[in-house]
């Protein structure tokens, strides 16, 4: 019975709860959950790629050499940019531009503004395809770019997260261009299968616009998860599904209202009204500095299902529900652990 | 059995080169090239017959020569080549219909090869990243060459149903580039200032004319029924291609694109059909797995090599050649006052190579 494989994650979760209960009983009180949280996030610290780079930097000797090296690297980068000497993949992903230009302004936001903490990042495999499924909130898709940054900068294998976006994204000038260049593509089965079968980590946010546009009062409640197309694709390509819970994005732009007429006028799925937007103009675009936690949960294997499981709606719906429940439960658990919205 | 190949559209560059290549192929005994005007280029050992494919006369040519393979390259890509959109459509669609009608009557025909285009897939924001031959177009082309090609392909499919004994090969080519290829894209890259769509960057693929013609030759010499995408490996972004060509660009916001395109068209500089504008906005990628695995042909030029070669042959790369960019970089490094910079740069390169290997 294929359903039997659905259980381990819940069981695992239960196991963890039991462990933490046991720990509590052992006498630890207040700080215990935070301490436990620190352990998985310190996992990616011994970073082989980074330490391999270190000795060469020492050759250049001290601070001025480092400045020179950085400068030379940037000049080299600019020259190749101007002459077109760079590589992109078939989806239009420009890895170098993403790393050097798009991610640069996001790094301080990630670490200083949101003080993002990642947990269980090694649940995303170091090689081969994987499908990261996460909750969506926060009016604009900050959660998606932060997850991409987390996997790129903090995963031991520096994985690039290739996200699947709505066609509206690719229709919109600038947004579409940046999305393609930072490795994302349209949420269609052929594209998702192509990415997963070539061993890429693919990110989906099944709540879509319903998720990022949800009202503040329902901020922690997951919206409907579509038709489970992502599960069928994972089953077909036999890649693991990594449920991912993101806490903190809910509070960056609290939606207190939705100007439907304006939204219709500009053909947008919603037009958010927050305490600061549009009242303060561009200042209203500054996100509130909430405390973020991104937790990658235990992967759900899809390789032990029989052939044709992707066409069995029962299996697909079961896994979809399992993924949704895992994310929702992790979300609630993280909320309990977070001391307040801003700490 | 003597092999006789008929090539349509030999008055233009690709057609005459195709006739020439086929006439040198030892497995083919005779090559007949037809068109309404005589070829300007050398067609080798091929014979030229002045005939209009829009006219039933073409049937007599096929019967008289005992043609067994028809290579249809007579579909025009710009109205300029035909002297107007009306006659372009007539040559493309009516011409193909007449040619296929003649083929249907000719019992000796065993192969039909059609040079089609990847623009039959259209271009739009809802497209998958890479089109396979079986992908349904999400945004059907509604005008010009692309629409003609969709119609041509549908007539070809009809013909294949009616004559199952004929091996029909349809090639959907990415944009051809080469020293003498005269296509809307070649004209576009030849513009002194190249207009682009603001906020969009299209994914492009190119096929070198040598590769494209070799694919057609293999199809004419062998037996490869089916539809195949043909494109060089890899992708270039439009912005990247323009940088490789050292071109100045003029980004135009979407609402004004049609207007600016109209100016260029009226000035006779380039042809901006609505389909081409959509292509330059959203781009397109072709999956060539079937060409490699089933047809057994691997293009020798990647998209990038084909384009770089094209830029080189056309002498387009005069604006900012690579060596000048490098000397500017060195100059800047000096201006920023660093003696250790060259060493540091070397170290940076080494490090990059090391991490590339890891």
Characterization of this structure:
The complex is a heterodimer of chains A (343) and B (358). Chain A is 46% helix and 10% strand. Chain A is an alpha/beta fold. Chain A has a domain at 95-252 and 287-337. In chain A, the strands form two sheets. A seven-stranded mixed beta sheet of chain A has the order 1-9-6-2-5-3-4, with helices on both faces. In chain A, helix 10 packs parallel to helix 12 and helix 12 (229-237) packs across helix 14 (313-337). In chain A, 37% of the residues are buried. Chain B has a domain at 4-176 and 207-232 and 286-300: 3-Layer(aba) Sandwich (Rossmann fold). In chain B, 45% of the residues lie in helices and 16% in strands. Chain B contains 14 helices and 13 strands. Chain B has helices at 13-24, 57-65, 79-82, 85-105, 144-162, 184-189, 209-221, 238-244, 254-266, 274-282, 289-295, 303-313, 322-335, 341-357, and strands at residues 4-8, 30-35, 47-50, 69-72, 111-117, 167-173, 175-177, 193-197, 203-204, 206-208, 226-230, 236-237, 248-252. In chain B, the strands form four sheets. In chain B, strands 3-2-1-4-5-6-11 form a seven-stranded parallel beta sheet, with helices on both faces. Chain B has a two-stranded parallel ribbon with strand order 7-10. A two-stranded parallel ribbon of chain B has the order 8-13.
